[in-house]
């Protein structure tokens, strides 16, 4: 240390304190309490990365928790040292439970432990913990947050307190205190965390110590300060009447032994009359089996053991001794702990005595590692069968058969413990786990639930059958899922896999019919007999979102952290959300322009598993007290109770989605999902783009409905039966030619030319269409090329006939965009790769083969290109169009006007004509002859197509 630092440190030390008011004790454990009452303490948890401890504020653990991690994590071992020539102590603080040294990064305010951080701390007389670095003081202090996570000046209700380290002198004044020793541990405290065996490790190997490293259980006695020590062999620790040979002084030192603990007293007349206490039938007093366990927590959980009494020999004459052999030892109460020392044979021995004033040392031990019961694993859940065959009658005068025998224990929907002849293997309500207190608790039981516990000392009865005693209850345990897996089984986590074509439906599970699906009528939800195809198409949208991009949503939990995701139910397009109104359920507008759900009446629901595949209750409310049920008479969905058992269970219902669509051939306009009226178009330069009616082609020309209309036709249906192939072509710009312009994948044109080996400019062609500089690697500009179909498997481009469908650049397929709709598509062209195994002399060998990677049609700033990245693919909808007129490129005058309104379409100038209104999916929502030149027709919100005598107009209804 340099002199400057030493001087500053000394000044800080002597300026801050010269003597401790309450100094930490070197080498001892302390709690760092907050405030004078100490209701909160500093503890540790793992940081978010699970890589190190982090300093946190927690509620002070209870004295009943002294053997649990929650208590041990609140303990810090203070170790002092000197720095340079300073006379004050500098402290290192080590967490007792984790062994981690309090080492913080002073450059950050965080409280996560780091290696090579600041680990030497100054502790002032008033409990302030600081450090000095480069002349600056850093303080450990508290920071208070409100319920919204904003920093405030003091603790507020609903907020939280966290620990930070900051460069200033505003350190928190902590109350640093040693934990109080436990004068007499209870049997529950001594026994393992699962109510099972404990082990004591003594600090010395002593002769005559029958319990060092031996598994035992503590058994409560009538005197709450003392316990019996029962070894797993069934024998008990006892102070024996045999003595160690002692030539050092006149004191008597008794040996320790193990023996049975009889419950019957000695026979009448067998005990020496001089003995004042009642002896057991083996001649020992019950007090010889009783021991007090003192626990010094501050010294590192050090145990000393004091017997309740030691023997004293009562006979005064040989005749008395002979007459009452073995029944002549009375009890002398002692307050001396078990001690050790050297006797005549120079061995260090463990002994019990009432004597004081000698030089023998208290025997000290610590608790060893505690394991869970044999064949039980705390990482797993268990199905619990009640195995008590008999029970006492009401007045406990006789035994009766117990009707619960072999039935499974579970919690019903109200949280009450019940029995069932069969277990629902997929339901956490039937799963029980081992708590740290040694009881069995249901996965769905709340933390405050003490009524449903199965508790008591665990005794293995039949390991093969899995039969155990928990106190007075006998149960059979069958291993179930892991606890971590069971946490995900109580409620459904909805994923994209549950949707097909971008939506799903719900089917009511009913004995009346198996085709009762949710339907919407004027927005009101009900169930009715219908085909799945006609059921209301819905989406399930998570109400929780990830805190940060890429992180999983932090779901709400119930019981033993059973995940309970919360969702909104919306219509297929996400425009409406399910609400509860007047005891019914309706789909109402989300009331947001950006797609977020802002309708204050929107239901937040969860899907409670029924333990059967794909069967759930749709529950909601703060305490899940409500569930969606169906009225048996009307079918209208109504509010019911979670515990209802009729017309309340629903299944997720979806249709199988085709991998590739098979749209009908004909005149079409192919648009995107955007409401901008743009469709695939053939530009004058031959490239493909998205254009709308009225956009300029040349200075004197604009795109019209006719020039934006394509002909969709089948290509080779024998290429792949599961992947129908199509051509998209147009006569725009070559109306008089014999050829048509086909949408092509230029990468395959290059492959074809290279294969034919006739065009020296193949590389130049590849360069023309290469779009990598704009859209990334493996991208090609989409284009239209003049071509003609010549035969089943051939297409001619610029006079070159491509006779292999594998190399056909115009053949495309429509991959169903199932997450959107079964009538929404990604346009796909197979990318062809060079065949390394091509052999011209082998019949059927091809120079190019189909690649596993297809190309997808995408757009960037309305420019169409092909890419291997499906994520960039544009989603298209095929809209039926009328046959183009012969003079393509000239917009026809029309006296009919179509005007979109709020939920309506107004058609002007069409009196006496047929008006058809269809959605983007082709579903007709109106088809009528209008009687007025200013007719208003109801229409759904979104993009619709209005056709008047074959002329179609696309508008957006609000």
Shape: elongated
Mean pLDDT: 82
Which structural class matches the secondary elements? mainly beta
Biggest sheet architecture: 13 strands, antiparallel
- Unreliable segments of 5+ consecutive residues: 1-21, 546-550, 751-765, 886-893
Percent of residues in beta strands?
Answer: 35-45%
Indicate the percent of residues in helices.
under 10%
Alpha carbon gap, first and last residue: 75 Å
The total count of strands amounts to 72
Helices, by number, come to 8
CA-based gyration radius: 42 Å
Tell me what the structure shows.
This protein is mostly beta strands and 958 residues long. The protein is built from eight helices and 72 strands. The strands form 21 sheets. Strands 49, 54, 55, 56, 57, 58, 59, 60, 61, 62, 63, 64 and 65 form a 13-stranded antiparallel beta sheet that branches. A hairpin with a 2-residue loop joins strand 33 and strand 34 (473-482). The longest helix has 14 residues, at 3-16. Residues 1-21, 546-550, 751-765 and 886-893 have low confidence and may be disordered.
